[in-house]
């Protein structure tokens, strides 16, 4: 049965740009009320004016700030039906050249931020017998040099959601994870612009791992997932096959193929590029 979004309240983190902002627009177009949570206050304010939405500046690694954002949302709308833990970042470079703080910050935002977001909003979602959607990634079941912290955090997000689903099912709460491939957002464009090694690798990846998906297509899939209270959303859908073949994708054979097709040269090039950049995140990243 379709979960009608008309009159529902969605709280969305990472809502200032990209997937979060576009999801807010699409949800409002379907009759929902939205609360926008993120770090870029000016962008959030502009979007809230456009959508007549609630907004609050908030770092998802700050539990006090998250709880305040949830409380203000409940005060404005009377409750929360759906929480979308979407906030995410990706540090640049390998473990060898990436500052430890950047690696840890990626895990803190992507994984700990999702855990904190869900924890803060769950009592209200439970009262509404609503839905939790946590944005993971194709990186949860594939590996690529330069993405150690990102892949680890997104795999952790998936397992967190898998357990949460079992814990909340008897209370009428459904839990889903979204697994997008490369989405045409500022985050991906920043990496593509900054690193020639990434552009070269992307061209060599097999389909569907080489696919760059328009953000609108991704958001359509996420909304369908919410409306159908699905446990898994793949963007594109062909990623379901990749996850089913996860033992092969993460096998020694896969490691050998990546090395054979220039993985070691790509690592050297990437490390040189990141050293020359002199920063650990993309140009538009606010690191949370």
TrEMBL record:
Keywords: Oxidoreductase. Coiled coil: none annotated. GO terms for molecular function: oxidoreductase activity. Residues 8-185 form the Ketoreductase domain. One of its GO terms (cellular component) is membrane. PROSITE patterns: ADH_SHORT. Transmembrane segments: none annotated. The keyword Oxidoreductase applies. It holds the Pfam family adh_short. Belongs to the short-chain dehydrogenases/reductases (SDR) family. This is Short chain dehydrogenase. It comes from Micromonospora cremea. The lineage of its organism: Bacteria, Bacillati, Actinomycetota, Actinomycetes, Micromonosporales.
């Amino acid at each position: 049965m379709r979960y009608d979004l008309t009159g529902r309240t969605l709280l969305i983190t990472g809502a200032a740009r990209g997937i979060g902002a576009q999801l807010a627009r699409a949800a409002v177009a379907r009759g929902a009320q939205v609360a926008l949570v993120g770090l870029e206050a000016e962008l959030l304010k502009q979007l809230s004016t456009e959508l007549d939405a609630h907004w609050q500046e908030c770092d998802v690694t700050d539990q006090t700030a998250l709880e305040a954002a949830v409380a203000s949302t409940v005060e404005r709308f009377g409750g929360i039906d759906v929480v979308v833990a979407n906030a995410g970042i990706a540090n640049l470079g390998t473990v060898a050249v990436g500052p430890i703080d950047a690696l840890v910050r990626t895990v803190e935002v992507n994984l700990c931020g999702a855990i904190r977001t869900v924890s803060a909003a769950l009592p209200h979602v439970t009262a509404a017998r609503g839905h939790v959607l946590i944005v993971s990634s194709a990186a949860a079941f594939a590996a690529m040099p330069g993405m150690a912290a990102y892949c680890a955090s997104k795999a952790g997000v998936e397992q967190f959601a898998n357990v949460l689903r079992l814990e909340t099912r008897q209370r009428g709460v459904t839990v889903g994870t979204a697994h997008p491939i490369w989405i045409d957002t500022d985050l991906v464009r920043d990496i593509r612009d900054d690193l020639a090694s990434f552009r070269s690798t992307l061209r060599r990846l097999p389909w569907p791992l080489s696919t760059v998906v328009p953000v609108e297509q991704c958001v359509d899939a996420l909304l369908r997932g919410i409306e159908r209270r699905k446990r898994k959303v793949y963007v594109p859908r062909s990623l379901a096959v990749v996850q089913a073949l996860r033992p092969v994708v993460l096998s020694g054979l896969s490691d050998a193929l990546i090395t054979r097709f220039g993985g070691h040269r790509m690592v050297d090039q990437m490390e040189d590029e990141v050293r020359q950049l002199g920063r650990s995140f993309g140009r538009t990243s606010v690191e949370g």
